[in-house]
Amino acid sequence: MMSIFIKSVFVISAFGIGTANQLKKLQHNHTPQRLPNGDIRQLVTQSNIKYFNEIIDNILIPRVVGTKNHEKVFDYITSELDKLGWNVEVDEFEEDTPKLGRLTFKNIVGVLNSNADRYLVLACHYDSKYFEREVFVATYATVASMPTNSLKQKNLQTKNIPNILIKPKNTQEATTTKTELMDAIKPSQLNIAIKKIQSTKKGSIEIKCNSIQDVQKLKKAAVEKLGVSYQIEETKLKNPQIKITGFDKNMTNIEVEQAIKNQNNLIAENELFEVVHIKTNTKSAIDSAVPCAMMLNLAKVLKPQFDSIKSNSDLSLKLVFFDGEEAFDQWGPRDSIYGARHLAAKYNKNQNVLRSTGESVTDLQKIDLLILLDLIGHSNVNFYNYFPETSRWFKRMADAEDRLDNLGLLKPRSTKYFVRRDYFGGNIEDDHLPFLRKNVPVLHLIPLPFPKQWHTPKDNKDIIDVNAVENLNMILRIFVTEYLHMLVRN
């Protein structure tokens, strides 16, 4: 997802292109409304956990850029925004990546009013982390050619040895159709199994085998002694895979294959051998399916309020779903936040003439505030004030939480979410950086410390705390409603 670097980011007071003095004055002087308690209670009732769960069911899948799942999630988000009446803009571009080559990225931007002079922007990313695993996929013939000691010594973790199944050809001679499992025996002890099946007529017998050599010898002996009246079979391998360990993850399939062949002559003689990559990717609930669901849920539950300000050309709202936040190999300036870097550069070039002031400004300059949501959805989250330039907006979030708490409207929680403490000493690398470096005010809603489930298979639906999500949804509804001066009740 992201990494942390200890480095202060100096934000200058002037924008890069044009002075836009009147616009900056409007942004600096913007004062949100303060909702009365009755309106806050009304906003709390505008909840739709059913829709939130529906979103999660559709997007909580591995969604690595370039995969079919990623395309499914893209289609779902754009479709939902369109159904809710938002203008949908897609920022599509290609870029080279390590591991997966050249990929197509698609930022999704939902715009309430495309002609507005200023925007409050809510953002998150919708892609998930790519993980790579090398797995040796073997056929039975390959496994059969490998002695047990070879499996242990040549970086191969597991083996699959079939058992021998002996069953009557004429099932009417047996008193039952059940199969009795016998412990491993040596080929010389086959008479034990023969006497057992002939004397008791208890159906079939399955004999465990300790090695491939035992399988072959037992099968041959059983056919010779019982072949007329009994079927002699090998049980099928349930999982004919052997995992590779101890190899450099950067090696290609062919290099890994050749390395194993060099270590084991038996494999080298066997043509039924290949190495393939099996990609095991997390579903990434908190990183960041839940933030995506929160933003879509906001568009749904506040639809009456949003519809009432759609024609407002002074101030409006954008919902940005960044693509390609995750690194494909090692996090760095060229392998991370692909979508955010591209959109920030694009917005920095796009020129507009403001309706209200007549000034020529960029799309970046039109952003009042970028609120980035990440690693949200589990319990016990703590948000801090990371940037002095947006301290007043962090305080507004904390105030909204306190008001809900004082009114007894918050669902049970074990911690206060917005900690009134500054954390200016370091900066978390995330999608906000290209905007911050171009002087866009940022409010970063990401918890510290990072949840322990981050970038693990445990980042799934099981860790979503619905109460925490609902509480944060309420806080976000209050903040957005107050910032945009929306009427709660007509």
Automatic annotation (TrEMBL):
Pfam families: Peptidase_M28. Its EC number is 2.3.2.5. It catalyses: N-terminal L-glutaminyl-[peptide] = N-terminal 5-oxo-L-prolyl-[peptide] + NH4(+). Residues 282-476 form the Peptidase M28 domain. It is an enzyme of class 2 (transferase). GO terms for molecular function: glutaminyl-peptide cyclotransferase activity; zinc ion binding. The keyword Transmembrane helix does not apply. Residues 1-20 form the signal peptide. SUPFAM superfamilies: Zn-dependent exopeptidases (SSF53187). Keywords: Acyltransferase, Signal, Transferase. The keyword Transferase applies. InterPro entries: Peptidase_M28 (IPR007484), QC/QCL (IPR040234). Belongs to the glutaminyl-peptide cyclotransferase family. This is glutaminyl-peptide cyclotransferase.
